[in-house]
């Protein structure tokens, strides 16, 4: 019966790994992650623009931040299109 115990252990390990993979995928596509990255992007760009004396750095940093958010909205669509039309295995 050691083989059965070994098999059960391996199945449990695979199930645990799958849970971690699913959680990672959920995080990658979550609004929380996108919002945090947008916030950090905005702050970093604002501080940089302020450091190089760009007029209205806090207002000017909105444009690249919105660009980032728009890119995150289109990427899932483009990924699906790529998988359907380009990646044909």
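Sequence proposed for the structure above (89 residues):
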């Amino acid at each position: 019966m050691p083989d059965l115990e070994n098999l059960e252990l391996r199945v449990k390990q695979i199930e645990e790994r799958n849970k971690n993979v699913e959680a990672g995928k959920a995080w990658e596509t979550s609004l929380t992650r996108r919002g945090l990255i947008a916030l950090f992007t905005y702050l970093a760009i604002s501080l940089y623009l302020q450091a190089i004396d760009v007029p209205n750095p806090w207002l000017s940093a909105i444009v690249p931040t919105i660009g980032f958010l728009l890119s995150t909205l289109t990427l899932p669509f483009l990924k699906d299109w790529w998988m359907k039309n380009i990646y044909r295995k």
